[in-house]
Amino acid sequence: MTQKGFCVLVSSLGLLVATRPMTAHHSFAATFDRDKPVTVKAVITEVHWENPHTLMYVDVKDESGNITKWTFESYPPSVLYRKGLRQNRLKPGAEVTLTGFAAKSVANWAEVSIVAFPDGESFCVPASGSTSVCDANER
């Protein structure tokens, strides 16, 4: 292949990639409702430490003993790590109290602002654009 042919190929591929639809990252206000605060006591069943969001899957038990499955969305792992929240702490079987805001259109889905443990340790991890519910005692 000639140098001119190679340049045409690379340029064509660049244009093809540029015309693909891009998926925009959602804002807090597009997904979650500031008027729907949520606080649940739960047991973590699974945590997906991945970009662009860490997802926490939890079981919430009501007064009758019925279990409802919830998903809480948070920052990527690197941000949680900088805030002090580690995988050895946020793991399956851990009891937590999660405070955040419910999703606008998905049942049992929420953003997490505070992750609190029974020993009193808590982590403030509100999403950008959320109304902070953290106080001075939280990291």
Helix content: 10-25%
Global morphology: globular
- For this structure, what is the CATH class? Mainly Beta
> Based on helices, strands and strand pairing, what is the structural class?
alpha+beta
Strand content: 35-45%
For the secondary structure, the number of strands is: 6
Low-confidence stretches: 15-24
Q: What is the residue-averaged pLDDT?
A: 81
From the N-terminal CA to the C-terminal CA, the straight-line distance is 59 Å
Level-2 CATH architecture: Beta Barrel
- What is the CATH topology descriptor? OB fold (Dihydrolipoamide Acetyltransferase, E2P)
Main sheet summary: 5 strands, mixed, barrel
Please give the count of helices. 3
Strand order of the largest sheet: 1-2-3-5-4
Which value, in Å, is the CA radius of gyration?
Answer: 20 Å
